[in-house]
């Protein structure tokens, strides 16, 4: 369908704010487009867009801008379509400057202005305007507003009481406080209790937590590996809920990698939250409800077994029970660099060693890089990415390099650039990633960074250039052969 709403931003940096508007339009099946135009840098393009919008079938324009925020007003001056302005919060005046710029329009050139960063309300206002002449959309929006009242996620009271009672039973007390220690045992949940919850809930969410702190190293047993109680809990909950055609999600509230290979096929989804802090709960609900689309990528590879970690044989040091000395024998082959190089040299089978690779992460849809090129003069990677799904998504385009002819020991692929992209349903977008001045250099034996190698490979995609990521995502990277 042709877009009837146009979301225009003064800069692509406004995407994190404006994706909320895109998500609501997508949820109510309102066709829209998203573009970035600057009233100051590209005034002619803005004027051309505004004057041609009606002929292209656009009915409402949502324009977002920060600081001087001329964009909404310039568009309003060049079209008879309704324009909704979204002031973007800046780093200096917190968006008040943008608010005043947009709201104080002269008579005859109105801009309907929402609150600072109020993208959601801008989308709602656009939908209400469209619904005046679209009965189906009016009904859908009425259902949406009703859903806002009902869309409250309630924790099972019996589950809450069970855990609160258990926490009280294991709290330690000193003269002032009650607290739970890091080594407190996990509560055992019976099959009978789980079965009773199935009939009283719509979905099961299991949280696996790990606490890290100073003065204590992580142990492979019951830290990297799940405890027997945790594994059995996941299996029992999945068995019971799946028998009733209900889904199970496992949330990992962890600070480092853990073993997932033995239980990953039980739940319907795994959400890696890391240790998200005080607002972590709100962020997780936004993702689980579909309010926002996940777009994070792993900053570390998840090994299948602890023995697959290159430092496992000599960690934590000597003597092992109470180490005095620690040794770092990996050299430059740390993390994902080790796995890829060892696999290439035939020392390991990558697919049998890495469960989830560095750079991997799913979103609510499928976006794929379909073309890429490199300009040696500007050191820029240009790319074209397409959203093959019917909903708005965020994705992270990544660029990896591989030095094929270096005389130094740097044969592994290395992440050298990335960019986050917000895509409307079915949208194809072009973009650029600037590589820095060190992209094609190495550190030599004297500790100096020098230009080295004449033949490089660049890989551009939504993940790293490994077969495991391709298998998990169903997409591939694009390889570019660069010669100097």
What does it look like?
- The longest helix is centred in the N-terminal third of the chain and has 16 residues, at 135-150.
- The radius of gyration is 26 Å and the shape is globular.
- The protein contains 14 helices and 21 strands.
- α1 (15-27) packs parallel to α5, α2 (43-52) crosses α3 and α8 runs parallel beside α10 (228-243).
- It has helices at 15-27, 43-52, 71-77, 96-103, 119-131, 135-150, 157-170, 191-198, 220-224, 228-243, 280-288, 336-344, 350-353, 467-473, and strands at 5-9, 32-36, 60-66, 83-88, 112-113, 172-173, 178-179, 204-209, 248-253, 269-272, 302-303, 354-356, 367-375, 380-387, 393-403, 414-423, 428-434, 441-443, 449-451, 455-461, 478-483.
- β6 and β7 form a beta hairpin.
- The chain has 484 residues and is α/β, with parallel strands linked by helices.
- The protein has a five-stranded parallel sheet, with helices on both faces. Strands 16-15-20-21 form a four-stranded antiparallel sheet.
- The chain starts with a strand and ends with a strand.
Descriptive keywords:
24% strand, 14 helices, alpha/beta, four-stranded antiparallel sheet, five-stranded parallel sheet
Question: Can you lay out the helices and strands and say which pair or pack?
Answer:
Blueprint (H helix, E strand, L loop, with lengths): L4 E5 L5 H13 L4 E5 L6 H10 L7 E7 L4 H7 L5 E6 L7 H8 L8 E2 L5 H13 L3 H16 L6 H14 L1 E2 L4 E2 L11 H8 L5 E6 L10 H5 L3 H16 L4 E6 L15 E4 L7 H9 L13 E2 L32 H9 L5 H4 E3 L10 E9 L4 E8 L5 E11 L10 E10 L4 E7 L6 E3 L5 E3 L3 E7 L5 H7 L4 E6 L1
Parallel strand pairs: 1-2, 1-3, 3-4, 4-5, 8-9, 9-10
Antiparallel strand pairs: 6-7, 11-12, 13-14, 14-17, 15-16, 15-20, 18-19, 20-21
């Amino acid at each position: 369908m042709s877009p009837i709403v146009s979301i225009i931003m003064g800069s692509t940096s406004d995407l994190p704010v404006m994706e909320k508007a895109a998500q609501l339009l997508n949820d109510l099946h309102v066709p829209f487009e998203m573009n970035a135009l600057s009233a100051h840098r590209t005034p002619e393009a803005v004027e051309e867009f505004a004057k041609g919008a009606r002929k292209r079938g656009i009915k409402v324009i949502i324009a977002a801008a920060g600081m001087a925020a001329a964009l909404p007003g310039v568009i309003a001056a060049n079209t008879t379509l309704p324009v909704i302005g979204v002031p973007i919060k800046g780093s200096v005046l917190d968006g008040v400057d943008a608010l005043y710029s947009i709201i104080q329009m002269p008579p005859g050139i109105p801009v309907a202005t929402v609150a600072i960063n109020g993208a959601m309300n801008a989308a709602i206002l656009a939908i209400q305007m469209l619904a005046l002449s679209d009965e189906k959309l009016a009904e859908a929006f009425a259902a949406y507003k009703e859903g806002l009242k009902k869309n409250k996620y309630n924790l099972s009271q019996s589950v809450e009481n069970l855990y609160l009672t258990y926490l009280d039973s294991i709290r330690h007390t000193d003269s002032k406080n009650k607290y739970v220690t890091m080594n407190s045992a996990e509560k055992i949940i019976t099959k009978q209790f789980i079965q009773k919850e199935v009939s009283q809930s719509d979905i099961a969410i299991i949280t696996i937590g790990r606490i890290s702190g100073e003065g204590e190293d992580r142990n492979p047993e019951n830290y990297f590996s799940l405890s027997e109680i945790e594994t059995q809990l996941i299996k029992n909950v999945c068995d019971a809920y799946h028998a009733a055609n209900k889904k199970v999600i496992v949330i990992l509230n962890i600070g480092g990698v853990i073993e997932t290979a033995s239980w990953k096929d039980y739940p319907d989804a795994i959400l890696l939250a890391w240790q998200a802090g005080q607002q972590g709960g709100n962020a997780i609900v936004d993702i689980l409800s579909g309010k926002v689309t996940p777009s994070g990528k792993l900053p570390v590879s998840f090994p299948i077994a602890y023995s697959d970690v290159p430092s496992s044989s000599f960690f934590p040091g000597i003597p092992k029970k109470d180490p005095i000395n620690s040794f770092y024998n990996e050299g430059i082959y740390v993390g994902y660099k080790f796995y890829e190089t060892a696999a290439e040299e035939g020392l390991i089978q990558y697919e049998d060693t890495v469960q989830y690779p560095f750079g991997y992460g799913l979103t609510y849809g499928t976006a794929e890089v379909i073309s890429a090129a490199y300009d040696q003069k500007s050191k820029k990677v240009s790319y074209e990415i397409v959203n093959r799904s019917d909903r708005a998504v965020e994705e992270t385009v990544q660029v990896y390099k591989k030095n094929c002819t270096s005389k130094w020991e740097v044969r592994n692929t290395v992440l050298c650039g990335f960019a986050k992209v917000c895509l409307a349903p079915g949208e194809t977008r072009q973009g650029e990633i600037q590589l820095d001045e060190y992209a094609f250099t190495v550190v030599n034996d004297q500790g100096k960074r020098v230009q080295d190698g004449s033949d490089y490979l660049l890989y551009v995609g939504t993940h790293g250039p490994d077969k495991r990521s391709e298998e998990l995502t169903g997409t591939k990277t694009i390889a570019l052969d660069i010669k100097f």
